[in-house]
Each structure stands twice: as C-alpha cells, then as structure tokens.
Model the fold of this input.
Amino acid sequence: QVQLVESGGGLVQPRGSLRLSCAASGFNFEDDTIGWFRQVPGKEREGIACISPGGRSYYSNSVKGRFTISRDNAKNTAYLQMISLKPEDAAIYYCASGGFCYGVPHKNEYEYWGQGTQVTVSS
Done:
C-alpha cells in the first residue's frame, strides 16, 4: 500500500524558509518520480517541482531559484527546501508519486498523493 506523508509545514514570515518532507512507503521509492504540488482554495492544484529517480529536477517559474527539491533514497524521503518565501506561496503542499518528471509536473500525471501540509506565510 503506497503511503506518502508530508510534514514540515507551518507559519513563517515573508522572506523566511521552510523545509518540507515527504516520507514514502509501500513502493520502490528509489525507482519512482516524486512531485511537489500546492493548492489554495478555489484554484487548481499547481505543480511546482519534481525529481526523477536519477535526480533530474524541474521547477515551475513561480518557485525556480527559491525552492529546491531533493531526495534521500536511503530514508525513502523527498524534501522541498523553500527560501525567500512570499505571501503568495501560502498553500497546502502535497507530494505525489507514480508520475513523470520531464518538465513541470501536472497533477493528472501522478497516481498517489499525500494528505498535504499547510504552509502559511504571514507577518
């Protein structure tokens, strides 16, 4: 049974940093692509980053240069390091697996999802 559990969200001030984690189980993590997405109420789930099994990564323009996706296959965990956070980065952040990473990820390409972690950016 595939399980993805996000953690690390919370309240941060503008220009602050957070690191999100995505703990995976129930599948061969090292062989799968991981995507990070975010969603605010009333908007579609937005793909922001993905990383392939070989470490190739892609970012949306909205986060490029500020967010970094990484993975630790020994820990079955993916990360999203976020710096220089802006109020518009506030959202529920989700990780997903079972998809593709040939460009900015799209929600329709991913099969398995975590429950999400809330990120609030406010002073």
